[in-house]
Amino acid sequence: MEILYKSTRGNNETVTASKAILQGLSADGGLFVPTQIPSLDMDMETLAKMTYQEVAYEVMSRFLTDFTKEELQDCIEKAYDEKFDTRDIAPIVKADGTYYLELFHGATIAFKDMALSILPHLMTTAARKNQVKNDIVILTATSGDTGKAALAGFADVPGTKIIVFYPKDGVSPIQEKQMVTQKGSNTYVVALEGNFDDAQTGVKQMFNDAELAEELLQAGCQFSSANSINIGRLVPQVVYYVYAYASLVKNKEIEPQETVNVVVPTGNFGNILAAYYAKQMGVPIDKLICASNENKVLYDFFTTGTYDRNREFILTSSPSMDILISSNLERLIYHLTGDDSEQNRAFMDALSKDGKYTITDAMKTKLADFYGNYAGEEETAQTIRRIYETAGYIIDTHTAVAASVYQKYKRDMRDDKKTLLASTASPFKFTRSVMNAIDHSYDEMTDFELVDELAKIARVKVPQAIEDIRSAPVLHDTVVEKDEMKGIVRKILGI
Ligand SMILES: *Cc1c(COP(=O)(O)O)cnc(C)c1O
């Protein structure tokens, strides 16, 4: 069955999967969504016998129907190889009565690697399929993890350039060091005097800038996006929910049709939307538990039906979730309207004009699959300490937000169904906050002393990604104001 993609704000025009991946964002400002969610149509016992790569093929081939089998398998092989430090790619660790789905075993030790190690291959394959001769310029805003994962994925990929904007004071020291030491002749990293939403808004404006697009074409380039607004990010993220469920069946932790809950630490709503798509495909998932940090705009949305970004932007110890405009929520809103792009557009217009919108009661009833809550800074730190002290397992700050919210869920809902929790980053990426949560006296140490101490108390090896940046030279030091974003892009591209 062929799956086509349409814009959440468009008419009925459809494009193939490869075109949707190439374009990133639709020209009308909307996001591409599949016209239909394909059914998995395969029993779990069969999936349970497969490798991650084989499951990836089964899931992705159902969404990306204009890719040939050879093309897709080639992309999958190049993506999920020794860059990951475990053959399982996405292993599950049982701790504190929860199944932690560790999504941080890739090159940059955050879950963004799960999709960004394959996106460059999907994109260059898509360019070839569509006879695109232009260079693809990846323009990306990052709250810390996407940037490095995209840089690592696209570095030295022929026919591509990548420009990453990150909020100067909005990422962890290790995240910043990872980005500014990035090698590759086609990589550009720019710090922005602003927050993540400023970076994301600036990037979206450039995507919708017809004049800039024309200048790019003259120079033989075209933009695409590595942000989770690209459907080529979302589809690979559906894979690990299918794989994780099949792994639980394989390890006899659950019966083949038993339902499980999924908890996801959420920022841009990409990861949890992938879980929602996995559920729509037929994976027996019950509740989708959406965990926010103190930027709790999604929690308020789930409890009131009003999305309101008019509030203070709070910098927290889980910076990759410091977001007030969750881009991917637009895809859910669109589905809640019954795929009505007119109605969705009205909500999104209100969001950009007034910073808020309220969904209808009919839409609200369709939100029953979701549960939202949030965790404050102190709770998050306590959760890290508690799980370390009781289970000897050290989780990062983002995962700890999810673990805290899961505690609240169990208490509020009295539901002790088996639960998968998306563990989105290695604790080594947020060493200072993690170690401080365990013991304040660690605060005296330098970043790399903390890394070694963490390895010691967690009894794990320092990940290669951290070893690589210990002494790496800084290669990128550009800082710009919000109104200089377009100028710097022109300068980098020589247009
Ligand atoms: C990006 C990120 C998140 C948020 O994921 P979304 O898909 O944007 O909701 C959570 N945790 C970590 C570590 C991340 O890098």
UniProtKB/TrEMBL annotation:
Keywords: Lyase, Pyridoxal phosphate. Residues 101-421 form the Tryptophan synthase beta chain-like PALP domain. The keyword Lyase applies. Its EC number is 4.2.3.1. The keyword Lyase applies. Its cofactor is pyridoxal 5'-phosphate. Signal peptide: none annotated. Residues 5-80 form the Threonine synthase N-terminal domain. InterPro entries: Thr_synth_N, Thr_synth_N_sf, Thr_synthase-like, TrpB-like_PALP, TrpB-like_PALP_sf. One of its GO terms (molecular function) is threonine synthase activity. Belongs to the threonine synthase family. This is Threonine synthase. It comes from Ruminococcus gauvreauii. The lineage of its organism: Bacteria, Bacillati, Bacillota, Clostridia, Eubacteriales.
